[in-house]
Write a structure and sequence with these properties.
Blueprint: H1 3-26, H2 29-47, H3 53-77, H4 79-82, H5 92-95, H6 100-121, H7 124-145, H8 152-156, H9 158-172, H10 177-200, H11 202-207, H12 213-216, H13 219-243, H14 248-273, H15 279-310
Length: 311
């Protein structure tokens, strides 16, 4: 047997794993992680305790499939601008790891699987909400707003807030004011979260002619908007307390985490007044925004589970 022939199985395995990795990358796994962070605690609040494990698993699986399909479709649509941005130039459709048609078929398959899985294993309402989020993300944000409006991420952020509605619907087969407030928390959280990232990658977005706020507005105005949204975010996080009948664990966590967030964004605003904002400063806000959302939603679940256990 020649050396080349002996190496053939290993090459095939390498190709196979790289292809699998490319398809996984299409789904943007790190964004899907936030789905877990928001969906499961919402289910705990809806149940006023721990929902059945099978229901949590089925809901998260369906939500992950839907979000993965939406993200893959986004990459198909944005492959031209992804090529122009350093942050996205290694995405699978830019490197040629697969064809756009293969990616689109993969995305649509995920969406069909998500709808069927949620409908059969959870309920029809959760399935409809998950697919509605995908349609909004693809048609309203990606195809309509992203390249046309500086408000792109403000309005488009609604898609990322839908998982809490899916989680609530999975438990109750209905909606209520509590999940609406949770939806509002994520909706208002999205602009300061994403704009701080866009500050770091401003040159990328400018090169791709995507009108993210830091591209079309001054750094002073961008950071001012970030502060406004963060103030609104902290205020809405307090509203959830009485609406969802939260206790002191959640309320104290919301206050402390909110105060830290406000400190970081006002510091960023102060630096902008002197023209001293750096990408590192912006990424500090971006990184904390993820921590904030995680801590807030974990506190919701913790508040319910601990208070239930004590009673």
């Amino acid at each position: 047997m020649s050396i080349e022939a002996a190496a053939l199985p290993e090459r095939r395995a390498g190709w196979s794993w790289s292809t699998v990795g490319a398809y996984v990358a299409l789904t943007k796994p790190r964004i899907i992680e936030l789905l877990l962070v928001t969906t499961l605690p919402t289910m705990v609040v809806a149940q006023r305790g721990l929902p059945p494990v099978w229901l949590m698993a089925a809901t998260v699986a369906g939500g992950a499939l839907a979000a993965g399909g939406a993200n893959a479709t986004n990459m198909v649509v944005d492959r031209d601008i992804d090529r122009l941005m350093n942050r996205t130039k290694n995405r699978p459709l830019v490197t040629g790891a697969m064809t756009p048609m293969a990616a689109l078929v993969f995305a649509l398959t995920l969406e069909v699987a998500a709808f069927v899985e949620l409908w059969l294993a959870v309920n029809l309402l959760s399935a409809v909400l998950a697919i509605a989020a995908t349609l909004f993300y693809v048609f309203v944000y990606t195809l309509w707003l992203k390249r046309r409006s500086a408000q792109n991420i403000v309005i488009g952020g609604a898609a990322g807030a839908v998982p809490v509605l899916v989680g609530w619907a999975a438990v109750t087969d209905s909606l209520a004011w509590a999940p609406v407030v949770m939806f509002a928390i994520i909706f208002i959280w999205t602009p300061p979260h994403f704009w701080s990232l866009a500050v770091k990658y401003r040159d990328d977005y400018e090169a791709a002619e995507v009108p993210m706020l830091p591209v079309v507005a001054s750094m002073k105005r961008t950071t001012t908007e970030i502060v406004y949204y963060t103030v609104a975010l902290v205020a809405v996080s307090f509203v959830l307390g009485p609406v969802a009948h939260m206790g002191w664990i959640y309320m104290i966590t919301a206050a402390v985490a909110g105060a830290c967030f406000l400190y970081l964004v006002t510091r960023l605003w102060g630096l902008a007044q002197n023209g001293q904002v750096t990408g590192r400063d912006a990424m500090r806000v971006f990184g904390y925004s993820i921590t904030y959302l995680t801590v807030l939603f974990v506190a919701m679940a913790g508040d319910i589970l601990i208070s239930t256990h004590l009673h």
